[in-house]
Design a protein that fits this description.
Blueprint (H helix, E strand, L loop, with lengths): L8 E3 H4 L9 E7 L10 H5 L4 E7 L7 H15 L14 H6 L4 E5 L6 H16 L4 E5 L2 H10 L5 E4 L23 E10 L15 H14 L3 E9 L1 H7 L5 E5 L3 H9 L3 E4 L10 H8 L4 E4 L5 H5 L3 E4 L2 H11 L4 H13 L5 H14 L6
Parallel strand pairs: 1-3, 2-3, 4-5, 5-6, 7-8, 7-10, 8-9, 10-11, 11-12
Length: about 375
């Protein structure tokens, strides 16, 4: 996810010798070798046709990310005069963005901003509104989105939702196939799947103790046709739990495209996490992209599931198991959820989101008629 496939992306040292860019929009994008940089919205640039992506890469050595970020700022400040319309990837260059007269694309993703950074972001948004700048905001926090929807003028701004990369085509007729004798495949996908004693045992997102220690024994006990698929790197102790279980299939850590294919071959996506970050969940969006419903606990994170009726949300482990049993019977409820998923999946496809974003930017800057 941290490598551009877009032919419009090029190294910074090549771009600085370009007298005038042939594309209407330019962004300088810093890519860390040690940490993912805005991975949730990486496809927002990578799928674009009208962005020149000036890539600054970090070095896989301690403390060198600071050097890369410094180089990023120097490039923006030194060469911004030759940029026709610059897309600011904040908060790296908040000071520069504050004084800019051009377009702004502002990332408000998941980092915990300092009080100073929060104030700067609010000032930037206020000034953008006063100057009627064209603004695109990419954020996942639910409350931030609600605030921005009421704060920003819709004619000049666009809030980018969390998207998915899947472009599968589905046969609508298969929604009515009788499936009572088939294996019901459920899937859980995470980069790391650990339990107590593993490296990420205390990580809110990668600790899968609830799934493997509490839910899995009941799934195996109370169902006969449910098969659990795990996509991600299992910790040593997690691997011991599922070893020898004929109805548990492990796929390991695989590329995003492979994971999307594997998820699409299942019937139901599980979101058995209890921590609530009050944001859009990339995992649920991946399930949507693969065309399958979601079974989850009731959280702000999972509001999208109940809002669009693309799955079921429950409050207790007992309800989780009971709902899984009912859905595994290929009930009308299951097919209703699946039909709803396939109605909204195109709306959240990155290809369509990028198209809408570029149209928003181009039409408001007289690049197209």
């Amino acid at each position: 996810m941290n490598r551009f496939e877009n032919p419009n992306a090029e190294p910074w040292f090549r771009w600085i010798f370009r007298r005038q860019d042939s594309l209407p929009f330019v962004t300088v994008y810093f890519l860390s070798r040690k940490n993912s940089t805005s991975p949730r919205f990486f496809p927002l640039y990578d799928r674009s046709k009208n962005f020149r992506i000036v890539v600054v890469r970090g070095i896989n050595l301690p403390y060198t990310d600071r050097i890369g970020l410094l180089l990023h700022k120097i490039i923006v400040r030194t060469f911004r005069k030759k940029i026709n319309r610059y897309i600011w990837q904040s908060p790296t260059n908040l000071h520069s963005a504050m004084s800019a007269k051009n377009n702004i694309l502002l990332h408000l993703d998941d980092p915990l901003y300092s009080v100073w950074e929060q104030k700067m972001i609010v000032r930037l948004l206020e000034r953008s509104r006063e100057q009627k700048k064209t603004l695109v905001v990419a954020c996942t926090n639910r409350y931030t989105k609600d605030y921005l929807n009421s704060f920003l003028p819709s004619e000049n701004s666009m809030i980018v939702p969390q998207g998915h990369l899947s472009d599968f085509q589905f046969d609508e007729g298969d929604d009515f196939i009788e499936c009572t004798d088939r294996v019901f495949k459920v899937v859980y996908s995470s980069p790391y799947i650990d339990v107590k004693g593993d490296k990420h045992q205390d990580h809110d997102m990668w600790d899968s103790s609830h799934l493997l220690l509490e839910l899995l024994p009941k799934i195996l006990l109370f169902t006969e046709n449910v098969e659990l698929h795990l996509i991600g790197k299992l910790g040593r102790n997690a691997e011991k739990i599922v070893k020898g279980e004929s109805r548990v299939v492990t796929h390991g850590l695989v590329p995003v495209s492979t994971a999307s294919t594997l998820i699409s071959q299942c019937h139901l996506g599980l979101y058995p996490r209890l921590a609530d970050y009050r944001r859009s969940v990339q995992k649920i969006t991946e399930y949507i992209g693969a065309g399958i419903p979601t079974l989850a606990y009731k959280l702000v994170d999972t509001d999208i599931v109940s809002e669009y009726r693309i799955g079921k949300v429950v409050e207790t482990p007992e309800e989780f198991i009971a709902s899984l049993i009912e859905l595994s019977r290929f009930s009308e409820e299951f097919f209703g959820y699946r039909a709803s998923v396939r109605q909204i999946r195109d709306k959240l496809c990155w290809r369509n989101i990028v198209f809408d974003m570029e149209k928003h930017l181009l039409t408001r800057n007289n690049c197209i008629s």
